[in-house]
Amino acid sequence: MSGRHPFTLLAFAAALPALAWTLPAPWGAAGTFAVALLLCLTPGSRPGLGILRTAILTAAPFWLFLFLLHDRATALAIALRLSTMIASFVWLVAILPPARLVEALVAAGYSVHVAFLFAATLSAVPVMRARAQRIVDAQRCRGLATRGGPLTRLRALRALALPLVLSALHEVDERALALETRGLSAGARRTALAPPPDSTAERVVRWTLVAACVAGVVGRVLWRV
Amino acid sequence: MAGLTFADVRFWYPATERPALDGVSLAVAPGDVVAVIGSVGAGASTLLLVAARLAPRVTGGTLEGVVEAVPAGIVLPTPWTQSSGMAFTVADEVAFGPANLGVTRDEIARRVDRWMARLEVAHLAGRDPATLSGGELQRVILAGVLAMERDLLLLDEPTAELDPAGAALVWRLIRDLARTEQKSVLVATSDLDAVPDFATHVVWLDKGRVRAAGAPAAVLTADAIWTSGPGSTTVAGLWRRAGLAAPAPLTVADLLARVR
Fold first, then answer.
1. How does pLDDT run across B144-185, given as a tens digit for each residue?
2. Which of A72, A122, B78, B170 has the fewest CB within 10 Å, making it most exposed?
C-alpha cells in the first residue's frame, strides 16, 4: 500500500472512520475496524505488526473506560468506531511520509500552506515521540527514575509533560521562522519535485470510497427517519 | 543600489521596553561582507531578522526607521530547527527553498548539484537529513539557503556547529561569493579570528547600538573593544598582553609581516 498515491491512502484513512460512524452498529463498525486492522498489517515504512500493536495499545484505554461507563452494546459500538478511527490514523501516519503528501498536494494545485498543514498533522506524532524520548533521556541523565512500578512511572510522566508541552510551543516559533527563511511565503507557486504517479484505477477507488461514505450518510438518515 | 540599508532603525520585541536595536544605520553593498560582532545580547541576531523582514512580521514587535533590502536568504544559528522536516533526502532538503520559489525542476537539479558540491556534502545526497551530525546538517542548511540564489545573504553564526576545516571552507565560500558573484553578505559571528580573513567591514554592536563600524583593522584594534566589547583576535590579544606597541596585528600573516 505504501506505493499508492497519497490521496488514495488519505481516502482510505478518512472513509473507514466515516463508514464506522454511519453503518449500523456493531457489525458495520466491526467490519471497518477489521479492515483498518488489515491495513495496519500491509507493508509500509514500519513492520506491520508494529503498526498493529501501536493501534491496539492506543485504542485499549478507550475500551476500558467505555465498558466502565456504558452498557455493553453501547460500549461495544463506540469502542469499535473509535478504534477504527485510531487504527486508520496510526496506519496513515506509519505508511504516508509527509513529504509525499506535500508533493501530491502541490502537484494537484493546492497551496503550499494547505499542504504543510496536512503534512504537519501527520508528522506531529513521530516528532512528539522523538522529543519525549530526548526529554526522558535527559531526565535519566539527571537521576530521574523512569522505570519501575506504576507510581514511579506516574512521577516520570509528570516530569515529562511540562517540558514536552513547553518545548513544543517554543519550537513552533523556531519552525515558523525556519520555514519563512526557506521561502515558504514567497508567494510563488511551489514546484513539485517528484509528483507521485496517479492512475485511473486509483481514482476509481477514491471515488468509490467517497460514494460509499455518501451512501452511508444517506442510509443513516433514511434509516433514522 | 545597496543590498541592504538601515537608516536609524529601532526594534522592540513584544512586551519589552528596551529596544533590541536602537538607532542602527548601516549599508551593505554588493561585494561587501560585513561582520556584525558584539557580546551576547548585543542585537546581532535581531539585526539579521529585521534585515530578512522576519522581524516584526513573524516574531512580532515594533519597528521604526527605514529598512531597504533586496530579497534575502538567511541562515539561523541552530541547523536542526532550520530543516524543513519535509524532505526524504539531503538533496530534497537543499531543493526545498528553490522549489518554494517556483524555480523550474531542471534549474533546481542544477542548483542542488552545484551547492552540495561547494559545501562538500554531495556524498550525503541520499541520506535522511534527520540522521546527519550537527556539522553535516549545518552545511546542508547553508547549501539549501545558497541554492535559493538570493543577492543578499544573512548568516547568523554559520559555523557554530562546524569543525575548523568546515568553518574555513564556509568563510572562503562567503568571501568568494561576495567577490565573484557580487553578493551582499551580512554575517553575525563570534569567531573573531576569522573576521579579518573574510570581512570587508566590521560593525560592533553594543546593547542594540552601533559602537563602531569600519575596516576590520580599525574596529578590531580599538582599545574599547577590549575594555567594553567582545575582544579581538587571538593574535591581537597576545600582542596586547605582551605590551607591544599598537596597533596590534590581527592575523598570523599580519604578525609575520610585522616581525619580518
1. 999 999 999 999 999 999 999 999 999 999 999 999 999 999
2. A72
- Comparing alpha-carbon positions, the chain B residue that sits nearest to A184 is B100
Is the Cβ pair B100, A184 closer than 8 Å? Answer: yes
pLDDT by residue (tens digit) across A90-124? 999 888 888 888 889 988 988 888 887 877 777 77
With contacts defined as CB-CB under 8 Å, which chain A residues touch B112?
none
Largest interatomic CA distance in chain A: 62
Of A116, A30, A111, the residue nearest A73 (C-alpha): A30
Mutate to test the interface with A, among B84, B104, B112 (most CBs of A within 10 A): B84
Max CA distance (Å), chain B: 60
Which of A99, A182, A189 faces B102 most closely, judged by CB atoms? A189
CATH numeric code, B4-215:
3.40.50.300
Residue of A nearest to B51 (CA): A181
Sheet holding B33-37, edge to edge: B72-75, B152-156, B184-188, B33-37, B201-206, B209-214
Contacts 24+ apart (CB under 8 A), A134-143: A135/A160, A135/A163, A135/A164, A135/A167, A136/A160
Distances, alpha carbon A149 to alpha carbons A129, A145, A146, A153, B109, in Å: 22, 10, 9, 6, 55
Q: How far apart are CA B3 and CA B180, in angstroms?
A: 15
**Complex ipTM tops 0.85:** no
In this prediction the pTM is 0.80
Q: A182, B148: Cβ pair inside 8 Å?
A: yes
User: Are B68 and B151 in contact, with CB atoms under 8 Å apart?
Assistant: no
φ/ψ of B154, rounded to 5, equals -120, 115
Kindly provide the b/e burial profile for residues A192-214, where b requires at least 16 CB atoms within 10 angstroms of the residue's own CB: bbebbebeeebeebbeebeeebe
Spell out the alpha helix ranges (H) of chain B.
44-51, 90-100, 105-118, 134-146, 164-181, 195-198, 216-219, 224-227, 234-241, 252-259
